[in-house]
Structures are given as structure tokens and as C-alpha cells.
Amino acid sequence: MKDNNMKKNGVSSLKTSLVALVLYISLSTVLYGQSKQESVDDSSLVTVEQDIRYATKPDSINNDVSSDRLLDIYLPKDSKQAKLPVYVYVHGGGFSGGDKAQHKVFCTKLASHGIAVITINYRLYLKHNKISGASCRANMSKGLPASGKFNAGLHRAIAIAGEDAVLALKWIKDNAKKYKFDTKDVTISGGSAGAMTALYTGLCTKYSKINVKNIVNLWGGVENNEQIVNPKVPVLTFHGDKDDLISVEYAHSLHRFLEQKGNRYSKLIILEGIGHGGPAYKEVINNQMETIVDFLKGK
């Protein structure tokens, strides 16, 4: 009888272990396979048009496509919307590198929410002009500049990138009918140097091509808050508190300034324990996309 009980208990234990194993595999698939599956699903909901010229080819870039005025468009497939909100994304790379194609997953996921996402290449001033002390790290890693000014080379790089961003906004206006763009619902965004360009274009430029409704700032910063001429534009900022390239002080300083100017719609999200670039992008893509979409909807 004892042997039979032991056999029954052994079979029962084996069944329990098998059930637990199946549950573990299923749960692991849900938890760890989710990003890959979402990426596949998202891409099936989006169409992409690449290398569209938004302005004339700049002089003196030779065959450097990454510094040419080209854009890619990510459009929601089979959209029934009369007009599409527009999200312009400017890539990072310290004004010396990077390309519009490097954040396909981010752009695709966002477009799957019914948004026309446009990512641009622009003149990379510091790629073609080697200037000592002009890097983002040299100017921004230790906090806000004591003089209130960046190195002249970095200042010039931001302004040149901003000029191209404005040209892209003009292209959006000129092609609104073709792509069903809602020119009254245009967000400009970017990561790192791209975020600096977005902030410069949306906050510090008296642009006339098209109004910017929102800014999404992924770990960028403004040279000097006193340069801001459009303080009421809503800004959603993400910044890692372990960022060793662009100090998180830029995020706090900008947010305080906008609040002091009566901007009630701006939000600041500090990514705890996260540094610059890759880890921050991963956090936003995996956990913050709904936050961005809700912000764009005014929630």
C-alpha cells in the first residue's frame, strides 16, 4: 500500500511539475516575447515611404546621405481618419552622426496609433566641421553652462539643424492634402541632439511655416531658457537621472521655467536608474508609448 501511495504521489508530482512547466513557458512567452510580437503586429499596420526630398540638397555634403534633406514617412495603414496628426522625429547623434532610419521601431509603434510619423535627415554641421569643444558631452554633461552659452560650434550646429527642421515643416504644409496631414496638429520631437533641435525649433524660433502644437523631448536640453519665445507650447520630457552625456539638470530647469511661464500642459518624467541613449530608448519603447500617445491627445 505504501509503495502504491508513493507511485501515486510520484505521478501526481510529475503532473504538477509538467503543468508548472507549461505555465512557465506560456508566461515567459507573454512577458519576454511581447516586444518582438508587438513589433511584427505594428509593422503590419503601417506603410513606409522612404527618402523623400523635403528641400534642395545642401552644398558641401558630397555624397553624405545622412546630411541630405530627406525624410521617411510612416503612415497608419487603411486609416479612416479625415486628417492625420503629424509627429516629426529628429534623430540624435551629436550633430556629427546618426540617420533617420535608426529608430524604425519607435516610429512604427507610434504610427500604429493613427499618427503620421515623419523622420528627417538634416545637415550634420559637426560631422563636416571639426570644432574643438563643440560636442554635447563637452558642453552639457556637467550641468547647465555657467556662462549661459554653449561653445559657438555647438550653437551653430543646433541652429543649422533647426533651419532644416523648419524646411521639413514647410514640406508638411505643402503636402498636407496629398497625405491627409492635419497641419493644426503637428508635434516635433527627437532624441538627444534631435531633441535639442526639436526644442530649438518649437520653443526658440519664431517660425512662420507651420505652428508646432506639442514637443516630445527625449533627453535633450535648451542652451539658455531665456532664448525661449514660445513658452506655452506643451512639452513632454523624458530624461534618465543617470545620463552622463546630457545632464538631467536640463530637464528640471526647462520644466521649472515652463511652469513659471504658466505652461500647465507640460510634463516631466524622470527615468530612474537610466542613462543616455540606448537604455532610455528601450524604456520609452517598452513602457512609455501610451504616455506619449495620451500626451498628444491632450490627456
**How can the largest sheet be summarized?**
8 strands, mixed
Alpha-beta classification: alpha/beta
**Strand adjacency order, main sheet:** 1-2-4-3-5-6-7-8
In total, the number of strands is 8
First-to-last CA distance: 67 Å
| H/E element sequence | HHEEEHEHHHHEHEEHEHH
Name the average pLDDT. 89
Q: Find the CATH superfamily of the largest domain.
A: Alpha/Beta hydrolase fold, catalytic domain
Q: What proportion of the residues is helical, as a percent range?
A: 40-55%
| CATH-assigned fold name of the largest domain | Rossmann fold
Assigned CATH architecture of the largest domain: 3-Layer(aba) Sandwich
Number of domains: 2
Number of helices: 11
What Rg do the Cα atoms give? Answer: 23 Å
Instruction: Please mark out the parts with pLDDT under 50 across 5 or more consecutive residues, or reply none.
Output: 14-40
Estimate the strand proportion: 15-25%
Report the principal-axis shape.
globular
CATH class of the largest domain: Alpha Beta
Label this structure with key terms.
8 strands, 8-stranded mixed β-sheet, 299 residues, alpha/beta, Rossmann fold
Concise summary:
With 299 residues, the protein is α/β, with parallel strands linked by helices.
List the helices and strands and how they pair.
Blueprint: H1 2-32, H2 34-44, E1 46-53, E2 70-76, E3 84-90, H3 104-111, E4 116-120, H4 125-128, H5 136-140, H6 152-174, H7 176-179, E5 181-191, H8 193-203, E6 214-218, E7 235-240, H9 249-260, E8 267-271, H10 278-287, H11 289-296
Parallel strand pairs: 3-4, 3-5, 5-6, 6-7, 7-8
Antiparallel strand pairs: 1-2, 2-4
